[in-house]
Automatic annotation (TrEMBL):
<dbReference type="InterPro" id="IPR004119">
    <property type="entry name" value="EcKL"/>
</dbReference>
<dbReference type="InterPro" id="IPR015897">
    <property type="entry name" value="CHK_kinase-like"/>
</dbReference>
<dbReference type="Pfam" id="PF02958">
    <property type="entry name" value="EcKL"/>
</dbReference>
<feature type="region of interest" description="Disordered">
    <location>
        <begin position="1"/>
        <end position="31"/>
    </location>
</feature>
<dbReference type="InterPro" id="IPR011009">
    <property type="entry name" value="Kinase-like_dom_sf"/>
</dbReference>
<protein>
    <recommendedName>
        <fullName>CHK kinase-like domain-containing protein</fullName>
    </recommendedName>
</protein>
<feature type="domain" description="CHK kinase-like">
    <location>
        <begin position="136"/>
        <end position="326"/>
    </location>
</feature>
<feature type="compositionally biased region" description="Basic and acidic residues">
    <location>
        <begin position="15"/>
        <end position="31"/>
    </location>
</feature>
Amino acid sequence: MDKNGPRDTGMAESMLRREDPAKVGKRQLDSGDRYILETGRRTAKGDNYSSDMIRVTAEFSRDQGDSKITEKKSIIVKVSPIAEGVRQDFIKLSGVFDIEILMMSDTLDKMNKLLGPEYRLSGKGLYVQNKNPTLLVIEDLAPLGFRMADRLSGLDLAHTILALDGLARFHAASVAICEEEPKQKEMYTKGIFNDQYPLELRNFFVMSCKALADEVVNWPGMKKYSEKIAKLADHIYKIGENASKLCEDEFNVINHGDFWVNNMLFKYDNDGKPVQHICVDLCVYTSPAIDLQYFLSTSPSPDVIENKRDVLLNEYLGALSATMKQLGCKTQPPTMEELKATLKRRASYGMISSFSVLPIVLCCKTEVKDLGEIMNPDTFSSPGLKSESYKKLMMKRIPMYDEWGLLDL
């Protein structure tokens, strides 16, 4: 990956229009090429929070003998937020985008080489620019047939199994890398819950919890839970810290850290069946229960998570064990008993994901908020809390959390 980028200033798209796409795209063109450069938004509002994503498409024409050859190529440029505000401040102070760049340019590249092209975990990282603005250029997977699944309907069993297979390979490859390079563990120590993060992030979880309590009080038979959730709010971030804390005597991996439906792409066969999964990168070295709780609480459809949980855990553990064996890992994978035990110990991580992230997942597209709106106390709202699908799910989950003792301080 090219790390010696240009140093131009300016807004993202105007900067990209000034840049030679050969330079931005890892100098992929010959100097004699002629090209037309186009830029456009890669994602809709609410689809990506840590950066602005832009698709850059270049149409090339060059002479080859007596004929002219025309090609079209595209890349994805992820730019650290340029507009001033809460979102920019959070991304800078937390280092979230820097962690993604580190993962793409170092660890993930090594993991992909271990697994081979058949099981690659992400698109190729092509280029990094470290400031003015900070950006990451990656391969555009759309021309290869990859696309996002529908977050509102939730992943069906086929999609969920494919995603868990990909996650298991991600975790297994991280074990192999950490055995080879123990320093990799020290590169990913923050995650979502960290006492060094700015107050805005902590406030997001507190405000999400309080907003849920205000909503739940209106649900039939749920008033007693509303009161418990309200009391939990001021402690919710610390609960998240404790749930995600590294325990050296457990089985640990580099977690993806933000493994939900919007951060993955699927490829389909001619019958519309998903056949390949790619995860798009907040990584943290700790128990794999963090990724599993987060994903299982936010992304599968209600039917899948309520009726196929054991199937999903068997699929994940089977793929994890097989991949670790294939890669020659010295570390032993967890047993099913050990995996279920750590999932139970870290169940509050899934609860917090249901309280804060799931409303974002289930928010209809016309009401989606950007990160600045979500994290600003003056503009905070979570429209997804009012969706019928969220209410239906949480009227089952909240009593379960209470039964497990998760609502008690």
